[in-house]
Structure to design on (214 residues):
């Protein structure tokens, strides 16, 4: 959790792309190692977090252990779930974990409320991030509800393949990204391999017919 890591006030990474850089740089900065749990399901939300470097993965976990990635927090961004919890006095309904080493500014709930009431610039930043991320989540829900698993797998491969048409990942990782089971993903990929669309290797997928997935 964030409050378990030592913080260093006034030694911040600049938010060069953020309109609230001058505001947040006055608040404590923390450094979190990779694979550190930022928050967990059911935890009380105490701070507003503005990421300045690194990446945080936010995901939901079902009772049977299946996961789905909801979104990632990049430098200059904030967590929409944190915003929702602070404004609604609610507990976290998902989990957040660092994928890389992360630095972030920490603003207490009391200070967050003061800034929200007193700074037009801060309000615009908060609600812009909230609205943008909410739109992304609605699109994700629409895809899960109405698109087939095969279509979602194809979209994921096309979005994440490198310039050599290769995607270095596992079937389990794809399942977590699109909200499915590893066995289902494996069946779909094997079907695509039989069709000559992809070539499967341990830890990677080679796209042989990019046009077939478009």
């Amino acid at each position: 959790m964030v409050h378990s890591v030592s913080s260093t006030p006034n030694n911040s990474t600049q938010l060069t792309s953020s309109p609230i850089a001058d505001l947040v740089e006055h608040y404590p900065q923390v450094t979190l190692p990779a694979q550190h749990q930022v928050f967990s399901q059911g935890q009380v939300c105490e701070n507003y977090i503005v990421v300045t470097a690194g990446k945080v993965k936010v995901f939901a976990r079902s009772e049977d252990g299946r996961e789905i990635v909801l979104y990632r927090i990049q430098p200059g961004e904030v967590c929409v779930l944190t915003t929702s919890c602070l404004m609604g006095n609610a507990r976290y309904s998902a989990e957040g974990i660092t994928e890389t080493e992360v630095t972030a500014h920490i603003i207490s709930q009391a200070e967050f409320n003061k800034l929200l009431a007193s700074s037009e610039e801060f309000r615009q930043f908060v609600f812009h991030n909230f609205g943008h991320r909410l739109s992304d989540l609605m699109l994700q829900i629409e895809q899960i509800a109405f698109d087939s698993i095969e279509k979602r797998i194809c979209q994921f491969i096309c979005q994440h393949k490198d310039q050599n048409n290769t995607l270095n990942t596992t079937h389990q990782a794809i399942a977590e990204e699109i909200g499915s089971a590893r066995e289902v993903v494996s069946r779909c990929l094997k079907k695509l391999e039989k069709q000559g669309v992809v070539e499967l290797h341990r830890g990677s997928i080679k796209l042989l017919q990019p046009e077939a997935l478009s």
Observations:
- The first strand starts at residue 7 and ends at 8.
- The two ends are 41 Å apart (CA to CA).
- The helical segments are 21-24, 80-88, 109-118, 120-146, 149-160, 171-178, 182-194.
